[in-house]
Amino acid sequence: MQVPPKDQTTIDDQSPSDRRVITGLGASGGIVIGRAFVMDRQYVDVSRTRIDAAAIPTETERLHKGVSESIEQLKRLKSQSANVGGAASEELGFLLDAYVHMLTQSRLVRGAEELIQTRHMNAVHAVSEVIDAIATQFSGIDDRYIAARASDIREVGLRLMRCLIGETDRAFETAPKGAILIAEEVSPADMARLQPGQITAFVTALGGAEGHTAIMARSLGIPAILGAADIIRGVSGGDLIIVDGGRGEVILRPTEDDLAHYSQRREDWRAARAKLASLRDVPSATRDGVEIDLHANIELPIELSAALENGATGIGLLRSEFMFMNKDYLPDEDEQYAELADIVTRMNGKPVTIRTLDIGGEKLAVSLQAEIGSGPNPALGLRGIRLSLRKPELLEAQMAAILRASLHGPIRVLIPMVVSVHEMSRARQIYEAVARRLRKEGHAIPDVLPPLGAMIEIPAAALAIDALARESDFFAIGTNDLTQYTLAIDRTDDQVAGLYDPLHPSVLRLIRDVIKSSRDRDIPISVCGEMAGDPRYTPLFLGFGLRNLSMSPVSLLPVKQRLRRLDTRNTEHQAARVMEQWDSARIAMMLDDFNDLA
């Protein structure tokens, strides 16, 4: 399919009644007018290898697992479709129910089972053969309804095949430069494959505004709308559409008035960003002269330029998962060293905090997935330091690469998902042992090892901050997971993502107490979650005594603009008033009132 170039934003032949607005969750701000690229899900690479008789039970189980995963995807889509409302929601719900039925002891599944057992086909090949057989049979029947059912069977079968090979919607690599991506779902691993300028915006049927995909979209400055369930049937490839990432709106087949209105809003947005750019080299200090360190969170190396362009004085969180995503092997020490050394060198003496591997939950590495699996509850499973201590060779290789890279500039090492002092003690033992090994092998590393710190993102760690201080050189508060675990809300679950509330009093109390305890012990502390990049929360953090914030590169200048208008004495008074409250809505209102006046 050929999509018209990005600048062709004139209206094709259509009637005003074709116009339609689809809403979702605004995950990353910005306005884009362009042509839709709908994910091509109609092709799956089928391996036709014959399996041994002994492998039949395993392959049959694999088929059933794929069926379960497909059904779970469809149920999530149906749950999300409830947000569409009205007849559209009901119609989409019926369709998705039909799809689930097709996967429940249907001819499709039974036929695939038979081919695995009698003809020793692998599961993907078996499903492919059954789809073709059904489609051939239905093609000879002159009936629109039957033809539609054949199309449905093919769609369901292709979904099952994609689950069986672990393939998600990654065909966007074929999208023309400047396209607007329309997909059922985009994973963090998919985001890591994006090339600069390839996709100008994306809209998905699934996902929440606080999930990792949304975080990466904000970090890359790509306007995004997630959870727009009706998008899967509302837009065709090549359609002219408007995406308003801030409001969470997609305008399909816009009118001339729409184009004029949103073109002006887009220009206003760009003008505001240009005005912010003038703040790049001015001090990040409050009105009463208190200096605040503003660092950047980095997901991918391509974000480094944006961090420097927006005036970051360091990298407060370098997520090392990018080195493991989309690879079917584990990168060794030398490969990791080369990647990290390049980033540290490009920072030209500015500090870099490198977080060790936090694969798990929604961030999966192909090279580790077969071994650790997804677990019944990935957010509570084998991830972060738990995985690193289970497989110490992973941690040893990372620490060795980090220590070698530390010769190129100042580095700190951050351990994720810490719960206990024992985990930090064990991490430090491995750290020091790796340093001794490197020196013995003749590698040059600093005499004084870079600081080793703990990420505070689990309530247990926040409550035991005094004990963790014994083994930690610094702390970094991860507000995303801290909020999620405190409230027992999966921020990526479409059904409850709207309940995710960082202003819940319990979350704020944990953050305040960790900051106070760290300052009392003279231990450096920063906040590196999404809250740090929201200017709305800046007065609260300053009032708590925080002096280091780390955020997405695109958030650096808005936060700097906000803090330069603040006086820390006023923020301390306001923070004390806020912490007397027990109602999130009241806290939000007080914070907004203060921001309006300050």
UniProtKB/TrEMBL annotation:
Record-annotated PEP-utilising enzyme mobile domain positions: 176-248
Every PEP-utilising enzyme C-terminal domain range: 274-567
Cell location: Cytoplasm
InterPro entries associated with the record: PEP-util_enz_mobile_dom, PEP-utilizing_PTS_enzyme, PEP_util_C, PEP_util_CS, Phosphohistidine_dom_sf, PTS_EI, PTS_EI-like, PTS_EIN
Annotated EC: 2.7.3.9
UniProt domain Phosphotransferase system enzyme I N-terminal: residue ranges: 23-149
Keywords in alphabetical order: Cytoplasm, Kinase, Magnesium, Metal-binding, Phosphotransferase system, Sugar transport, Transferase, Transport
Catalytic reaction list: L-histidyl-[protein] + phosphoenolpyruvate = N(pros)-phospho-L-histidyl-[protein] + pyruvate
SUPFAM superfamilies in the record: Enzyme I of the PEP:sugar phosphotransferase system HPr-binding (sub)domain, Phosphoenolpyruvate/pyruvate domain, Phosphohistidine domain
Cofactor: Mg(2+)
Superkingdom classification of source: Bacteria
Coiled coil feature spans: none
Principal cellular location given in the protein's record: cytoplasm
Family note: Belongs to the PEP-utilizing enzyme family.
Role noted for this protein: General (non sugar-specific) component of the phosphoenolpyruvate-dependent sugar phosphotransferase system (sugar PTS). This major carbohydrate active-transport system catalyzes the phosphorylation of incoming sugar substrates concomitantly with their translocation across the cell membrane. Enzyme I transfers the phosphoryl group from phosphoenolpyruvate (PEP) to the phosphoryl carrier protein (HPr).
PANTHER family: PHOSPHOENOLPYRUVATE-PROTEIN PHOSPHOTRANSFERASE
NCBIfam families: PTS_I_fam
Name of the protein: Phosphoenolpyruvate-protein phosphotransferase
